[in-house]
Amino acid sequence: MYQRSRVICLFLLVFIAIQTHGAMAQTLRFSAIGCGPYAPEEEQLLAHYVDLVNRDDQSDFFVHQGDIVTGKNKQWPESQYAKVAGILRQSTRPTFVVLGDNEWNDLTNPDEGLAFWNRNFRNFEQHFPQVDRLEKQSERPENFAFVMKGVLVLGLNIVGGRVHDKVEWKTRLQHDADWVREQFAKHSNDVRAAVLIAQAAPAASHELFFQQLESLCKEWVKPVLYLHADGHVWQLEKGWRAPNLWRVQTDQVKLNPPILVSVTEDPSNPFLFDRRIDIGSRRELFVDDYLVDQHRGTSLKLHRPSHEDVAIVCDAPWEGNISAYYTLFADQDRYRMYYRGAHFDVDTKKSTHPEFTCYAESKDGIHWEKPNLGIITFEGSTENNIILAGEGTHNFSPFLDANPACEPDAKYKALAGDSKGLKAYKSSDGVRWVPMSDKAIITKGDFDSQNIAFWHPVQNRYVAYHRKSKEGFRDIMMSVSTNFLQWNDPRFLDYGDSKQEHLYTNAIQPYFRASHLLIGMPTRYQPSNQQVEPVFMSSRDALSFRRWDDALIPITTPKDRDGNRSNYMAYGVIPSPTNQSEIYLYATEAYYAGPGSRLRRFTIRTDGFVSVHADDKSCEFLTKPITFSGSKLQVNFQSRSNGHMRIELQDIHGKPYPGYSLADCVPLVGDAIDATVEWNRRTVHTAKPLSSIANRPVRIRVEMQNTDLFSFQFRE
Question: Domains plus CATH for the chain?
Fold first, then answer.
């Protein structure tokens, strides 16, 4: 009997252990987003995201990481807190909200803001009866903890923004650290990982907490994720401050849907992140791997433009062989061009006349005229195309302001300057210019290059790029402004893994067919021989760029490009007025040579800077999960001999949606800018219109051979 009892007990212990391990081994999945809504349209977007999480049926819970209102206002009525709470209450998943600085410590009256937040969010989990065994910290009841599927989840009051009360700040951070310490000790044996959720991006003002977290993580050993908002754009850092500590910063509401976080049982890869990218109906170019999850024989390929005729020769007496820094843009029924007029005598090593800003225009982007404007006198005559003399003419770089709130007298704006800084200019007609301020508006940098600015239609602010040396290399800085006169402290661009090189002009601009994408054609400089050549790069956040090593226009391209600074890229990408399949680029030549430098026109396929490329072997690639809106899919592609392409739309698990498999797809053959993809959905009785899977997670599988795919777009 005793032996039999021992066997039964042993069996029960093993059974319990297996069941316990099975429970702990379940993957925990949850959705997270922060920083928003900041505007009424973002409120609609947040509601859409809540619905997306509801229908996705993967998330165990949903969390908002703070900053439920924009920081532009320093006082908010409680009705705004209630409005956001109402949106989040539509979630069918247990939903948690942590505190952000915009709704609390950055307000004029932080105590009032905190009271509003407490009434609307502190016990937000009570709206969801599924939540049980939730602990609250007695000293700080907005901090919470629970265990789900073998994972410890902690919510913490760690906010960014200003230190509104030094005593409160220090006390609260210590409470946060105590809460983590208490929960780590309590659950050291019954969880496999921990997730810490807060609003703040780590800063010096948070060191009291993060120093203790670093020590706690090293002692605890198990994987820990610090998941936060605050910085607005995606960041991932493994081994941050401790080998087992990960840090992730999520996108703000207006950029992407909530991220899906998976906490696995794999100690070597404990956290997975599914950035379900909402592309809506915008066009996407394959200038980077942002949308690509897997290449299966395909690769990204850079394409070079073809050289055409010379567009303009700077041979007028007020121009010359060091005329440069060309800016071009389309403006209703014409194209405008601005450039520096200057000449250098190679024998005397001196300039022969002062620098001027000159103007030309065109109806087709091919043939350019230099109008006699009658504005500036040169050698006793105003019969010239000069629009500016004196200060600012070395690198005057205008743009057509796309800001909807732009005043009529500042429809055109420009940056120009010298070693002291950049000044702002404005114009109502693009020809007659006046300064917007007496003082320089950007002073941190080296300003002897073409420094440009534009209105970013997605970020809703002005963005400027200028030159600055960094660690002995010529580099590029970025600054932003909401009014074009007050700019934030400039930051150097991030090129990822690209090697450090000298970069002069940057030619960064929103791409006209996909304005959320910035393309740049910076000029790479070789100090040993003073040769220059443009390269290509792109960005989705205006700061981090994917830069190609290969030259976009090599110095071997016709003509006269191998001399000192003789191959600069002009600032401007112009759509052809007669051929929608090509766009115009421009680059300089014959600098320092002959009576005048030249600007040559180049053509490249529309959207054609980079493609997903397949050679003569059948291969494919798979995108990350996206959501879209629209009722048809159009692609920009080109197939070669025996080439073709087929497209499949999969659900989140890799299963084709009925009627949208590869077998259903009509093969795409030929060359088209906006070809509509067709599926023979009649073979599947359950197939539904493409619009029926809009706003649902979709992976795009593309099978291709001898084909280049440049872009795609879902449209109505």
Answer: 21-275 (3.60.21.10), 295-300+611-715 (2.60.290), 306-605 (2.115.10.20)
